Amino acid sequence: MCAYVSEPLPPPVDPLQRLPELLLGRNVRWSTRRLAGEPVRALTDLADSLGALLIVVGTKRPVRKRRPVRDALRSPLAMRLTTTQHRPVVVVPLGSPGSADPA
Prior knowledge:
Blueprint: H1 15-23, H2 39-50, E1 55-62, H3 68-72, H4 76-84, E2 89-94
């Protein structure tokens, strides 16, 4: 018989729960919105209506250390936004390039 026992994983943390704490005392306007429809069109319409200077999106998976840009842009949403916007698009990877090196 072979067994492996590990420590229990901590519960997942919703990043939006920490946002007010992280931005406290900084001169940053932010809000959350629930959008419906085709994601690129919905984000573009919202950015236009707010006069946003840039759009920030995240990735669903961590990026690999050897290919961070390629992995970050592998998302169809990130790729379409970066190629269709007249404003900058910042793609924030899940984790940092050095935090994990998935196969």
